[in-house]
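A brief tutorial aside. Many learners find it easier to grasp structure tokens once they have seen a single protein encoded end to end. The record that follows does exactly this for DUF1203 domain-containing protein. Read the sequence first, then the structure, and try to relate runs of similar tokens to stretches of the chain.
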Amino acid sequence: MTVIRFAAMPTADARALWSGGRDAYDRLPETMVSDGPGHPCRHCLRNIDEGEELLVFAYRPFPELQPYAETGPIFLHKQPCPRYAAEEILPPVLTTSRDFIVRGYSANDRIVYGTGAVTAIADIPAYAETLLARPEIAYMHVRSARNNCFQCRIDKVKAPALVETGALA
């Protein structure tokens, strides 16, 4: 059994932008005011409320440039917010659309062909568990099905309690 974990953008990445850092295109983030749902913060994984300021910037959730290192626009609360912590639960931003693209990546950060699928919200955990059970898949991205924007990452976590009790043996 593979246990999945939903991971927000790293706090170090968010902190750099909140401190005036530059985005993946070496540009300063733009400031906007949210007009309501549709501006998901990739750090707390909640929607940015209407009237709140937000940063919009180019984000590349990969450690280095390479052909599969997709870069796209994402949002972040302009004021620091806590990182999403309920990693075993479907994040609130993944309840704002009827479906998302879920895609697997290898340990060398390349797309594993044939894994990308537009997936209904309710099916994301099961699809993630199925894909992450495959040895060639190290992690997955959840992306907008309409715009391909990065939403969050899904990692596999072995359930230590199940291993120790022999339930996985």
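Self-check: The helical segments are 11-18, 124-132, 160-164. If you spotted this yourself, you are ready for the next section.
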